[in-house]
Amino acid sequence: MSRVAELEARLAGLGSAVVAFSGGVDSSLVACLAARALGARALAVTAVSPALAAGELDGARAVARAVGIAHETIRTDELARAGYVANGRDRCYHCKSELYERLWLLARSRGFRALVSGANADDLRDWRPGLRAAAEHGVRHVLLEAGVGKEEVRALARELDVPSAEKPASPCLASRLPYGTPVEPATLALVDRAEQGVRALGYRVLRVRHHGELGLVEVGATELARALSAEGRAAIVAAVRAAGYARAEVSEQPFRSGSLNLLAPS
């Protein structure tokens, strides 16, 4: 049995499913497989909140159309949860609790039997408190359960012509804030504006790390030399300051996913 057939069989066995759908490559692959395995008994749902970066919803809608799955949005209010706003190391637990509670209400009201995420096997290697929230809500992780890691996710997405196969990861905007920095709508909007400004310069993989008045920009390894050139650095600093930061710097280290976890107290 091929890997695609194996994953489709896992999804078909659920009977019907709501896919927690961000539009990133992991959830896009699951949405594609669910559409193939379940047809009209699959629904992709994207959560909309101040923590969703600009352009992500449009991207999710485009992917859903391309893979042929029904798509809806819901509003989530993680900012009403004190644990999320406090931004401790368990922030993602509170965020995912909000998400999965709302998705389960939708699933039950519409007769869907399962709730499925895009978590993959490599997520077990990093700090992922959201997986605890998923376990509490009975969320199924078909990629993780099958031992599919990120590299294979992208390979399968390419095989199935999923438009987001090469899309860089884009987690919630709160991930740009060091643990302990309160999550506030104005801060999320500031980060979002700054990242849009840097992205407009042609950078594909980037983060603007929020450090009070300082916006610290990280870019991908393949783009770092350009960013650190005199011209590149000046353009990035100008873009970040135009977004509202008093100061801006370009990190001499390339972007690394989960780097803030390395700085957090245990």
Write structural notes for this entry:
This protein is α/β, with parallel strands linked by helices and 266 residues long. The protein folds into two domains: 3-159, Rossmann fold, CATH 3.40.50; 173-263, Alpha-Beta Plaits (2-Layer Sandwich), CATH 3.30.70. 45% of the residues lie in helices and 14% in strands. The chain has helices at 3-12, 25-38, 56-67, 82-86, 91-110, 130-136, 142-145, 150-159, 185-199, 224-228, 230-243, 259-263, and strands spanning 17-20, 42-48, 70-75, 114-116, 206-211, 214-219, 247-250. The strands form two sheets. The protein has a four-stranded parallel β-sheet, with helices on both faces. A three-stranded mixed β-sheet has the order 5-6-7. Helix 2 (25-38) links the parallel strand 1 (17-20) and strand 2. Helix 2 runs parallel beside helix 3 (56-67) and helix 9 (185-199) runs antiparallel to helix 11 (230-243). The termini are far apart. Mean pLDDT is 95; it is low at 262-266.
Features of this protein?
266 residues, alpha/beta, Alpha-Beta Plaits, 4-stranded parallel beta sheet, 3-stranded mixed beta sheet, 12 helices, 7 strands, 45% helix, globular
Q: What is the structure about, briefly put?
A:
This protein has 2 domains: 3-159, Rossmann fold, CATH 3.40.50.620; 173-263, Alpha-Beta Plaits (2-Layer Sandwich). It has helices spanning 3-12, 25-38, 56-67, 82-86, 91-110, 130-136, 142-145, 150-159, 185-199, 224-228, 230-243, 259-263, and strands at residues 17-20, 42-48, 70-75, 114-116, 206-211, 214-219, 247-250. The protein is of the alpha/beta class and 266 residues long.
